[in-house]
Amino acid sequence: MTPQAVPGQRDGFPGPEPRPAMELLVHGVGGATPQQMLGDARVCRVTGDATASVHRRTDDAEDRPWDERDPLREAYSWSNLTSGNGARALWLLLLPFMIVNVTHWMRPAVRGHGRTHHLYDALVRLIALSLTILLVSGACVVALDALAWQCGSSAACTSRTSWFSFAADGGWWSTPGRRLALAALLPTALTALLWWLSHRTWSTYESAYPPVRVRQSVTEPAPLSLPGFWYGRRLVSRLRAAHTAAGLLTVCAALLSAGWAHDHGTEGGAVLATTGTALAAATAAGGAAVLVLVTRYGRNETQIADPPPHRAVTLLPVACAVLLAATAVHTAWERPGQTADGALPGTVVFPVLTVAQGLMIVGLAAAALRLHRLARDTDRTALAGLGGPAVALLSCALAGALTGGATQRFTDWLTAGSETLHGPPVMLSWQAAAIPSLIAVAALLGLVAAVRVRRDRRRLAPTVAAAYPGESTPPDDHRSGTIASALARARLTDSAPAVVGTLAAASLLLGIVAVLGTWGTGLTPSEAAADAPAPLAAVASLSESLGSWMLSVAVLVMIAMGRRAYRDRAARRTIGILWDVGTFWPRAAHPFAPPCYAERAVPDLSWRIATWIDATGGRVVLSGHSQGSVLAAAAVWQLDAPTRSRVSLLTHGSPLARLYGRWFPKYFGPHALRLLREEIPCWRNLWRATDPIGGPVDVPGRDADDRPVDHGPLLDPLHYGRNLRSPLPEPVLGHGDYPQDPAYDEERAHLCHTLRGESDADAPTGRLPRRPGDRHRRHGTAEPAAGSPDTRPGPEPGPPAVRS
């Protein structure tokens, strides 16, 4: 009988052509070039554009079966999504919007309880809306109150600002109402700029459809596997319309407050009073429409359907713009006898906003605690479920500090030396006085961290050499101290919840003091402490002045960093790292936050994997480093079951459990990661104890015979001292260069054999080859010729890493 061909048979009988296999590389924080990822200077782009693309070595023109000595590789480069454009560095000024948007995704992991979830979402979106109102209100204080209302009525002030002298020369613009109408162009232009940025960035970075695939219905799908998770155009469009309308309505309210007392007093006319009342009613109606639009509608993640936005949503900003134009005409109307005395009415908005934000954060904390109490696997959750409210509180504090710093510094510059001018709002002075105290708390936390690192270094240094028992190098105090310092610094990441909680508590306490000081005294801190003992009065005056300068310097430093990013590629890359974590999540709370790069990167990866497997019938080893491992996991969740069965996952330096699992438990908590392990054939995770970002995922195997996902901790450095293989000292790699560890090649080969239904015994015998650009080639040591013995010593056996 003629033997039949069997797939995978190696006894010489003819068999079917082996299916191709590929390793798809995804870089992490900070980015890497395709040449660095592929270890070859000659690469070509397979698909994609200048923003994000897939590359392959020029020699690998065609797909081929897996070769362990030279595997087929592709590299997905997405660094330009976060740091490619220097103008994006200026978005550091939108940092509070990004932080509050992250709050939306920090809810505890619990199913059901839709009302509590809706309350949590609505409160986060309302807090985000208050930040937009706060920003526009700050612009109104600068343009309307300080410049048009106070400075325009003072000859001493306008003499220092020659560019504004036309407002005080007795001409047509010299009346207070007309100056206000003209100055309203500044906050209006700011609102229009934010709308334009949100619209443009969506079209450029986020309008990527995920692959439309039929998914099998499962009892409990992972949240990131929902087909519409990475396509939130409808919500972003609604929120953009609502926040734009809110900004325009804020300007309307500021203009109406200027002439309200005059129009409804004894000197006002019936026509102006009636018109003002009608405009105020229209402004209130617009505000009610904004609240309904923000609180009622949430994300739709179950489908990708993209119908055009409702006409009412599209017309709301247009209607508010028309209302603002009518309000500007009403404000500019001639009002005999109107004078600009004191501060512009309406600056009470700052303490009111602060109190409203505090109440909303309290409600958010109550909803988060209820969800946390009903959640599962809560041991790792940051701050016992209060991570979201704490981060929301920090976003409000940061927004108040940046807005108040810019507003107060500009107002102080205009009103300097003039005793007749009122100056900045009192609330901003109290916020400025609180900044030195908050910085002192942060400095104290930094000192505690430094003491902790020093203490852990001394405790770990004597144990470092024990991790390398096979090496003959005698213990070296300096070498041991360097490794122990890396271990101690890496552990600081686990203290992040305590740091965030402490800063949030300090911000809450200082915010309460600022509100009580504003409403209780109506005076600035230095004025309120004037009758106090001399030391206390000096401290209050110094805190107010120092805080004002600190806030101003912080704003200037951010702008300077943005300007430098235009000219310095290294600075662009450094600033881009700041966005890699915060902008991973879609814009679900604030439409003016920086764009979500994952809404482009995740569809890119899932499209490439799915189409390549459909075209070749091959297998894919998806290798993700650092933030790339998060993108890789999200892309795997977006695949259908047949495609997912041909994909294995190799993560290294991964923050999936250490950071994302603690702060975003619903999406990357222990249960979600266990679901991911059950939905793919194999997954391995490499980590080091010296890595400050990556760590274990603590996911067991599918059954008793399956290995757990984690492989580590890996030795770092690979050798304690010098030897024939490493004549120079090995560096402490920490978070980078995981492919240099022999475990990387071993686990990659294991994943490929598992996908092909083979055991590790079917793998070619002998030591696995290193990747191109590996340590041997860089150090100039050649591999032994075929058939010649390799007499060089290999890695010494020993414990995998130093652990406390």
Automatic annotation (TrEMBL):
> Which sequence ranges are marked TM in the entry?
89-110, 122-144, 180-197, 241-262, 268-294, 315-333, 348-369, 381-407, 427-451, 498-519, 546-566
InterPro entries xrefs: AB_hydrolase_fold (IPR029058)
Which keywords fit this entry according to its UniProt record?
A: Membrane, Transmembrane, Transmembrane helix
- Top-level taxon of the source organism: Bacteria
Q: Does the keyword Transmembrane apply?
A: yes
Region described as Disordered: spans on this chain: 1-21, 694-743, 755-804
Feature: compositional bias, Basic and acidic residues = 700-710
Show the ranges annotated as biased composition (Pro residues): 792-804
Comp. bias intervals (Basic residues): 768-779
- Name by which UniProt lists this protein: Integral membrane protein
